[in-house]
Design a protein that fits this description.
Layout lengths: L9 E4 L3 H14 L10 E4 L12 H8 L1 E2 L3 E5 L4 E4 L2 H4 L5 E4 L8 H10 L5 E4 L4 E4 L2 E4 H8 L5 E5 L4 H5 L4 E6 L3 H11 L4 E6 L2 H24 L3 H22 L10 H13 L1 H11 L11 H9 L5 H15 L7 H11 L13 H42 L16
Parallel strand pairs: 1-2, 1-6, 2-5, 6-7, 7-10, 11-12
Antiparallel strand pairs: 3-4, 8-9, 10-11
Length: about 425
């Protein structure tokens, strides 16, 4: 069968560093002779004029096969086509790779996508974050799906720094799905010898790990700014991962095993030991003066270190804290609370290690489990008592019935 008759047309929605890196991975798999994908991979880019050359970004990518603004020095396969018109980029696409920062996603964008993509289209989200309504957390993928008329949305998260992935340094990623068949398609699209993907049936857990990990990275960055040793930082990372899991299990249904995937512990480690968020957090506490407080705002630090890019992770922390306060659960998250106090309420950075003893929390947890088991045990005893009473009543009623009449003579199998 000719390649162009194969089932899947792919479009990357987003032409930033991560979107371009994803396009580079996808294009290599699409170009394989036996692939199930149309060879040409479309990449929608937000058109802009480059400062150094006055050329259009999309034209430069298609001519030089390099995204000089967002991923300089990295060659993009020739079968990637940058397209500034969204409708043209997603035309008849059956697979969408969403790689746009959440602040740029809106209903108008989704309407335009739905107007031109294929009826059987499905998507995978590379977007990290959570959506809060009245301080109640919701998954971004649920919002995407509702805006895309119920489209199936998988998620891909992991310890993936775009520049390193683009240099073909070995790494892993986790794909979360709710449909096993979809997992096979997404694995075929993304899996490479240098970009190993593992598919799990826990899209919720995979997505939430990506949404929360940079809160922990803030705490790790505070440790760096204080000059703490490896022991202290490792402890903060471990406590942070535990609170991530606690938050997820409080508000959603997730699998514990997911936290041991690349999207979980590996992504937390990467973000805490080399991410943008931890670097900004380090700079934030370095400016601390006991008498004057913190010298620079988060916006000023981002402007100095990362050309003014917004720190969405700081806003995510505030939303998480608001959620915990509304639910009366803040005391169950001492590290998240301490990070918030340092980031927004001028608490001394050293308070990052002034956390309640773990033993106290374990005792509370054990008491809660004992209480729960006692309730369950009591319910079982009650159910057994009800069953016993019902059984006794049944046999008593049977004993009060008159005996059945004797069988009539002459009835037999021989007649």
């Amino acid at each position: 069968m000719p390649k162009h008759h194969q089932a899947h047309r792919v479009c990357i929605v987003g032409g930033g560093a991560w979107g371009t890196t994803a396009a580079r991975i996808v294009a290599r798999n699409a170009a394989k002779p036996d692939s199930i994908f149309f060879e040409k991979v479309m990449m929608w880019v937000h058109e802009e004029t480059l400062r150094d050359s006055s050329a259009k970004l999309s034209e430069t990518i298609n001519k030089t096969h390099v995204n000089s603004k967002y991923l300089p020095g990295v060659v993009i396969p020739a079968n990637v086509v940058a397209e500034p018109n969204l409708e043209a980029a997603v035309f008849e696409a059956t697979l969408l790779v969403l790689a746009v920062p959440p602040k740029y996603l809106h209903r108008g964008l989704f309407v335009r996508i739905m107007s031109k993509c294929a009826p059987n289209c499905r998507a995978i989200s590379l977007v990290k974050g959570m959506h809060f309504i009245d301080s109640v957390p919701h998954k971004l993928s649920s919002w995407f799906s509702s805006e895309l008329m119920g489209m199936d949305i998988a998620v891909l998260m992991g310890a993936n720094v775009a520049a390193e992935v683009a240099r073909d340094e070995f790494c892993e990623a986790t794909i979360g799905v709710s449909d096993a068949a979809a997992g096979e398609v997404w694995s075929a699209l993304f899996n490479l010898p240098t970009f190993r993907v593992n598919v799990v049936m826990d899209a919720t857990g995979v997505e939430l790990c990506g949404a929360l990990k940079n809160i922990v990275a803030l705490g790790a960055g505070f440790c760096d700014g204080l000059g703490c040793g490896g022991n202290t930082k490792a402890s903060i990372v471990r406590i942070g991962l535990e609170e991530m899991k606690r938050f997820c299990k409080t508000y959603f249904t997730v699998s514990t095993a997911t936290f041991f995937e690349s999207c979980g512990v590996a992504d937390v480690i990467t973000s805490c030991y080399g991410g943008r968020t931890s670097a900004c957090a380090k700079a934030f506490v370095t400016e601390y003066d006991g008498a004057k407080g913190y010298g620079k705002s988060w916006e000023e630090i981002a402007a100095e270190l990362y050309d003014g890019q917004e720190l969405d992770d700081v806003k995510q922390l505030q939303a998480v804290i608001d959620c915990l306060v509304k639910g009366g659960m803040l005391e169950r998250f001492p590290l998240f609370s301490a990070i918030n106090q340092i980031a927004f309420h001028s608490a001394p950075p050293a308070t990052i290690t002034a956390l309640p003893e773990r033993k106290a929390w374990r005792q509370k947890t054990n008491h809660a489990w004992r209480a729960a088991l006692a309730v369950i045990g009591g319910m079982l005893v009650l159910l057994l008592a009800i069953y016993g009473a019902a059984t006794a009543m049944y046999f008593h009623q049977q004993s009060q019935l008159p005996p059945p009449p004797p069988p009539k003579s002459g009835w037999g199998f021989g007649r």
